[in-house]
Recover the amino acids of this structure.
């Protein structure tokens, strides 16, 4: 499918890495103009945009921080489709960096710059530079909803069951919870309480030195 695109970045257009890849890699475009627009509109948690000597920026995201990263890309998507912005698995497993609003959505009638909201789930700060691969874009079909109000919904075997109702218990494993308490002296025999919960029963163990 042909998609109209304006590329204001210095990066090449996104491309499929392999013959049957579903997504194209999106790269950061950390120009002064793009970052300046972001700083005018948004506030960020634990993220710092640092100007560099070449006129571009570096963004450093602290642990549990988030930031909007510009791409310099503007697209016109045909009606009936969207572009989903998804995390890169390598960034997620190796660095703890993922897309906060996974999947992000680029609507067919949106004409602004594509931005990627990243969050740092690791315990270390992470810096992003111009040209870094930050996410992937996937073109997806979208059906529009036409509501029809009714008094009763069609019945199913599941019914109203949700929030783990379809999860099958594993009888070979027990969930363990540990609560560590503060001690008032070195002679305090109660150092921690372990509550081991299994289906239908709860047992408390008190351990000491």
């Amino acid at each position: 499918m042909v998609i109209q695109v304006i590329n204001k970045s210095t990066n090449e257009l996104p491309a499929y890495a392999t013959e049957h890849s579903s997504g194209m890699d999106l790269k950061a475009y950390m120009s002064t103009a793009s970052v300046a627009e972001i700083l005018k509109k948004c506030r960020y948690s634990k993220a710092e945009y640092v100007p560099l000597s070449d006129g571009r920026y570096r963004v450093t995201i602290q642990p549990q921080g988030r930031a909007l990263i510009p791409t310099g890309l503007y697209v016109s998507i045909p009606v009936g489709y969207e572009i989903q912005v998804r995390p890169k698995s390598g960034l997620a497993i190796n660095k703890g960096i993922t897309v906060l609003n996974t999947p992000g959505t680029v609507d067919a009638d949106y004409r602004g710059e594509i931005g990627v909201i990243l969050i740092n789930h690791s315990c270390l700060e992470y810096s992003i530079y111009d040209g870094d691969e930050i996410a992937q874009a996937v073109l997806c079909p979208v059906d529009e909803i036409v509501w029809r109000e009714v008094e009763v919904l069609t019945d199913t075997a599941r019914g109203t069951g949700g929030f783990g109702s379809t999860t099958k218990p594993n009888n070979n494993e027990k969930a363990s919870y540990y609560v560590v308490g503060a001690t008032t002296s070195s002679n305090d025999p109660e150092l921690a309480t372990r509550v081991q919960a299994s289906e239908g029963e709860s047992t408390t163990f008190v351990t000491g030195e």
Notes: Residues 175-209 have pLDDT under 50 and may be disordered. The two ends are 69 Å apart (CA to CA). Residues 4-141 form a domain with the Deoxyuridine 5'-Triphosphate Nucleotidohydrolase; Chain A fold (CATH 2.70.40.10).
